[in-house]
Amino acid sequence: MAGLCAAAHARELGAAPVVFEKGTRPGGSMLLSSCVIWRFREWDDFRAECATGDERLQRVLWERLDEGIAWLEALGAPVLEHETGNPRTVGKRFDPLGLTDTLVRAAGDVRLGEGASEAVILATGGFQGDAGLVAEHVRPAAPLRLRANPWSRGDGLRVGLAAGAELSAGMSEFYGRNMPDAEFSEDEFVPRVQLYGRYARVFNEEGEEFFEGDVSWSENDLVQATARQPGARAWYVLDDWALEQSVRGWKVEEMVAAAPTRLEPSQLPFSAPAGARVAVRVSPGITHTIGGLRIDEKAHVVGADGLFAAGADVGGISTGGYASGLAAALVFGRIAAESVLSS
Ligand SMILES: Cc1cc2nc3c(=O)[nH]c(=O)nc-3n(C[C@H](O)[C@H](O)[C@H](O)COP(=O)(O)OP(=O)(O)OC[C@H]3O[C@@H](n4cnc5c(N)ncnc54)[C@H](O)[C@@H]3O)c2cc1C
């Protein structure tokens, strides 16, 4: 998304940019996403949620997102919902295919299946697709399944580092969802999500309840904690009450029914707690890395003169918690275009 936003904005500012897209289709993970572009309603909430993130970048993101969303609408991107459905956040849900088509049209020259030999704006979408980089920085207890486009393999990170870039905080953090601990396809990225850890009792393979305190609303803290358990997996054990709950309109019972790794509590590898009705073995699907290249408010890569970056190649914005990756790609993609053209 960030590269397309940068190019579309650069074109309207009078430049003739080229987007080099390594994949076989445009849109990256944006195309596969639920496409809710959002920010925290309250600034203090953003700071509290992502307390170890770079405050200056967060401020820019928070202040410029509404204008970015209005820009997408003015380009003709179709909005499906004008609210996020979460009282803590504001934003809009776009149609991912319609948004991709709109941005490709506005960007103009998008070359599929090509990497750039010399890029000015790095926007390759993070390093979650490279198991070696994930093992080095994120250090999960076992390899994580990818829940994202297959092409984001840290190319931007490597180019930035070779040019002298500094790394952001939070290199070990990632955003993802706990999924059934089984193979899943792109079409199942959303419908197979197991987003009810807050209502479950959560055990690791050894039968230990490893997560302390309350699970956050995004459950990203629980997902990251799961990645550090033996085998990078966990068991969600539910009673009747838990099965009757719902999360953001999704019924827990239906999410459980979509999991091929559900079983009777008597089949657990440890003693089931009293009242257990069903258990689901889950493991994290990694969607994007949270650490990456360090940039300043103008999207310059710190330490690498003349290089700019946006989207999940940039780290340190939602560090410590979770914030919209699409929002960061939109805001800093547009800023990167402005900075390149004024430098
Ligand atoms: C199932 C799912 C649901 C999601 N839901 C949401 C949501 O509702 N809200 C939200 O905010 N976020 C959501 N996200 C996350 C969001 O999609 C990402 O944060 C966002 O797309 C990141 O933008 P980006 O531009 O950095 O990366 P991308 O959108 O992935 O774009 C990166 C592009 O770079 C290309 N590329 C990689 N390497 C190279 C190279 N060397 N040369 C050229 N091109 C290259 C890739 O092919 C890709 O097209 C979701 C993601 C998924 C997978």
Supply database-style keywords.
343 residues; 15 strands; 11 helices; binds flavin-adenine dinucleotide; three-stranded antiparallel sheet; globular; single chain
SSE series: HEHEHHEEHEEHEHEEHEHEEHEEEH
Inertia-based shape: globular
Strand content: 15-25%
Instruction: Detail the poorly predicted runs.
Output: none
Major sheet: 6 strands, mixed
Secondary-structure-derived class: alpha+beta
Helix content: 25-40%
Oligomeric grouping of the chains: single chain
Give the number of helices.
11
**Roughly how many Å apart are the termini?**
23 Å
Per DSSP E runs of 2 or more residues, the count of β-strands stands at: 15
Ligands? flavin-adenine dinucleotide
Radius of gyration of CA atoms, rounded to a whole number: 20 Å
The pLDDT mean sits at 97
General description of the model:
By secondary structure, this protein is α+β, with helices and mostly antiparallel strands. 31% of the residues lie in helices and 18% in strands. The chain is built from 11 helices and 15 strands. Strands 7, 8, 9, 10, 13 and 14 form a 6-stranded mixed beta sheet that branches. Strands 2-4-3 form a 3-stranded antiparallel beta sheet. Strands 1-5 form a two-stranded parallel ribbon. Helix 1 crosses helix 5, helix 1 (2-12) packs parallel to helix 11 and helix 4 (55-75) crosses helix 11 (325-342). The chain is globular. The model has no long low-confidence stretch (mean pLDDT 97). Bound molecules: flavin-adenine dinucleotide. Residues 1-2, 20-23, 28-30, 32-37, 115, 123-125, 147-149, 151-152, 155, 189-190, 287-288, 311-312, 324-327, 329 line the site of flavin-adenine dinucleotide.
